[in-house]
Amino acid sequence: MTLYTDLVAAIAPTETGFSAHVSDDWKQGRTTYGGLSGALCVEAALRAFPEAPPLRSAQFAFVGPAAGELAISVRPLRQGKSTLFVAVDLIGEQGVATHGVLTFGAARTSAIAYEEVLCPPVAPASACESFFPENRQGAPHFSAQFEVRKAGGTRPLAGGEPEYLLWIRHRDTAATSMSALVALADMPPPPAMALFPQFGPISTMTWSLDIVGLPQADDDGWRLLRSRAETIGDGYSTQEMHLWDAKGRPLVLARQNVAIFV
C-alpha cells in the first residue's frame, strides 16, 4: 500500500508545473479517488506558493478520469494584500481530470465571532465498529488507506433521511498536512447510496469545501464526518458534509453534487 506521505513526497517539479504518480490502491473504479485529486491540487499550490496564507476555501470540478502518471499545472488568478486565488488543473492522458480554484486568506482582526456547527453526540471511535466488512468485499481500493467506523446512522434515519455519520482517519499516522485533511474529507460514499435498491455506480461532479478550523497539536487523527443527502432526483444528488475533530471542533464544511446511476 502506498502511504499518503510517500505519494505526496514523490510529487516532482517540472517545466510546466508538477508531476505525480497515483498507484492503483488510491483508485476509485477507473479513476483517482476524488479526495486525493483535490489533495494533489492543494499540495501543488502550496509548493508553488510556499508563502501563501492559510487555505480558506476550495472548489473542485471532477471533469474526467485520471490515474497513473499525472501532470499538475498551477497559476495565480489574483493576489492581494491578504488573499490569494489560485487555479489548479490535474491532467491525465485524456486531458483535464480535475479543475480546482483555491482561496487562501490571511487572518484579520475582527470585532465579530460566531460559530454554530454543533457536533452530534456519539460514542468515541474506540467504541465503534468498523464500517467496512472484514473481507472488504465491495469496498473501493482507496478505502483501505483509511480507518472507518460507524458512529451513527449508516442507513436512512427514522425520518427517511439518507445520512452517514462516521469516524474516519488516515492509516498513515504521519498524514497531518493541510492536503491530508482534504484527502480525508471526501472519504465516505455518497449518502444517497443508503437508498439504493441494489449496488450502482456513482461519480462526484463537484465538491466545494471551506476550512473553518485546524487540528491541534495533541490531535489523535480521528475525524467525525456527517454526510447528508439533501435532494436526489434526475440521476443526481446534492449533499452537505461536516467534519469535526475528536473534541467536537469543526474543521471542514463542504457540499457535493454527485451523479448516481441507479
From TrEMBL:
Return the SUPFAM superfamilies for the record: Thioesterase/thiol ester dehydrase-isomerase
What the entry lists under InterPro entries is as follows:
ACOT8-like_C (IPR049450), Acyl-CoA_hotdog (IPR042171), HotDog_dom_sf (IPR029069), Sec_Metab_Biosynth-Assoc (IPR052389), TesB_ACOT8-like_N (IPR049449)
Where do the Acyl-CoA thioesterase-like C-terminal domain residues begin and end? 132-259
Pfam families linked: 4HBT_3 (PF13622), 4HBT_3C (PF20789)
Stretches assigned to the Acyl-CoA thioesterase-like N-terminal HotDog domain: 23-105
User: What is this protein's name?
Assistant: Thioesterase family protein
